[in-house]
Design brief:
It contains 7 helices and 21 strands. It is mainly beta. It has a domain of 209 residues.
Length: 388
């Protein structure tokens, strides 16, 4: 068959073989992006579709009228099993589900399987429905190693984990395949355990480049702490929430905690312009050693000042451990700038201890773009002088 338009899909160059048997109907479908076998009872009230492989890159609309949920009202009940799901030839996972049509409504029930090394959670039961109000998706995804998930999706593996979970609750106008982040509303919660962030290469781009802000590798280099985290930035737990509404992504907070260090990110981004506006609070293990403070503020005069203050007020300054960064720029070119450093005694932000550096004059490098700066260790003489 040269071309067949069905369910909003152009089945061009499709081979269809249908036979009637004593038990009902049997057939096969073969297209450049699909191979499947189908069986149905004599009255076509129910249908079973066993898909050998399906490449989602081949799915697409006909470019004409938008899909109408009313067109599915007369469909039979369809049970679907996809043995191999692909994306552009790359293995993506396996799925099985039941399509149950209603009055101008199509529901996906009994959804099971694995997508990009993420297992669809059974509790609570996943829900996917399409009606005149649009599409609604509620689903839990259980993660193992997120490095495998990112690789399966064709992205750079910037994070490794032992386990975790994502819970998605989103809705958007149109059919399921018409998902658009700018048009969607809802949210995603995450909880990851026992992992580490890896350095993102210069080739990382787009939304993953924004996520790489949280890999903290660049900040660690700026703090001259690379030798502490040579194999990545470890964490015990990462949790947070993302909300999408009216074309804006809001992050109330994403918290990353580990042994002696923690990071908290909050902010928002306009999806259309891809502009960023956020804040990252980094707390690092600096109890009796403050070379990273000098690296943060990038200057030996500041380093000397910090050293003198640390000796005069050793007990108080030993509590100094947090720095606040402003996140700006775009998804493609996110920018990180030191805003302030504060004392975290008593569990909250106290007085400003070391202010952010003044903007550099023309021709001078800034903290935002300069390479990491290591403070020279003060001499024993300076140490003795400061004690006096």
């Amino acid at each position: 068959m040269d071309s067949l338009l069905f369910a909003g899909q152009d089945w061009r160059d499709t081979l269809i073989d249908v036979q009637q048997t004593s038990a009902g109907w049997r057939g096969t479908l073969e297209a450049p992006w699909l191979r499947a076998a189908v069986s149905a009872d004599t009255g076509l009230s129910s249908l079973v579709l066993n898909v050998d492989w399906l490449d989602v890159a081949g799915l697409g609309g006909n470019g004409g009228d938008p899909p109408d949920p009313g067109a599915t009202s007369d469909w039979p009940d369809i049970d679907v099993a996809i043995a191999e799901l692909l994306r552009g030839g790359r293995p993506l996972g396996q799925l099985s589900f039941a399509l149950r049509p209603g009055e101008r409504r199509l529901q996906v029930q009994q959804l099971q399987g694995q997508l990009a090394d993420l297992q669809i959670a059974a509790d609570p039961a996943p829900e996917l429905s399409w009606s005149d109000q649009g599409t609604r998706l509620r689903m839990g995804l259980v993660a193992g190693d997120l490095a495998a998930t990112l690789t399966a999706l064709g992205y750079e593996a910037i994070v490794e984990t032992e386990q975790g979970r994502f819970d998605v609750d989103m809705q958007w106008s149109g059919a399921p395949q018409q998902f658009s982040l700018a048009d969607a509303s809802g949210g995603l919660t995450l909880a990851l355990e026992n992992g580490r962030f890896l350095s993102a290469s210069a080739g990382t781009s787009g939304a993953l480049r924004v996520v790489s802000i949280l890999d903290l590798a660049d900040i660690v280099q700026r703090l001259s702490l690379t030798q502490w985290f040579e194999s990545g930035i470890p964490f015990d737990r990462m949790s947070g929430e993302l909300r999408v509404q009216d074309g804006v992504i809001r992050v109330p907070q994403i918290a990353v905690t580990g042994a002696g260090s923690s990071f908290r990110f909050s902010g928002r981004s306009n999806i259309a312009s891809r502009e960023l506006d956020g804040e990252l609070v980094a707390t690092l293990p600096v109890a009796n050693n403050l070379p990273w403070v000098a690296a943060l503020t990038a200057g030996l005069p500041v380093a000397a000042g910090v050293f003198v203050v640390s000796k005069l007020f050793e007990k108080q300054v030993s509590q100094l451990s947090s720095a606040v960064y402003r996140i700006s720029g775009t998804w493609q070119e996110p920018a990180v700038r030191l805003d302030r450093i504060f004392d975290t005694r008593d569990g909250g932000e106290q007085e400003l201890v070391v202010p952010a550096p003044e903007p550099a004059a023309d021709g001078e490098s800034t903290q935002e773009t300069s390479p990491s700066t290591s403070a020279a260790a003060p001499s024993p003489a300076a140490d003795e002088s400061s004690r006096r």
